[in-house]
Design brief:
four-stranded antiparallel β-sheet; about 5% helix; 1 helix; mainly beta
């Protein structure tokens, strides 16, 4: 089943959103402005689009795997979560970044990506004295001898 995301473009200098056939089901987002950052700078990079996510979904924004390598940028919130209430004409998607070195991001360069996912179902929390399971070895222990 296909879902529809309504998109308002705020720039005619960025490519329209599309899948990269056969490569991924994530969709690239592009810088809608030229940004020059010095090491240690923080900014919100405009991605040039406002969206209306389908009811019952949220949009997840994450850096592309090459963003740090090419630009030295870290997305400061790890991932971005956009729920369906952030859907006004001027609710422009942005990528919050911290520069680890001097860098320039040019208009239309792919810097992050998104996908949508359904909201998690309602969860009931049951408090117990024991989970009744064997400990795995602590946080970060997978694969350690």
């Amino acid at each position: 089943m296909k879902e529809t995301i309504r998109i308002k473009y705020h720039s005619d200098q960025i490519d329209r959103l599309t899948y990269i056939d056969g490569k991924s089901d994530w969709i690239d987002l592009r810088a809608a402005e030229e940004i020059t950052l010095k090491k240690g700078d923080f900014t919100l990079i405009s991605l040039g689009v406002s969206v209306q996510v389908p009811a019952g979904y949220e949009l997840i924004i994450a850096p592309r795997s090459s963003t740090f390598k090419h630009y030295g940028l870290i997305q400061t919130n790890g991932i971005g979560v956009v729920d369906e209430s952030y859907s006004g004409d001027n609710d422009i998607l942005r990528m919050p970044v911290y520069a680890t070195r001097d860098t320039v991001v040019h208009v239309n360069e792919r810097i992050c990506q998104f996908r949508i996912q359904r909201h998690q179902p309602q969860i009931e929390f049951e408090e117990v004295e024991s989970l009744g399971r064997t400990d795995r070895g602590g946080f970060g222990s997978t694969g350690r001898a």
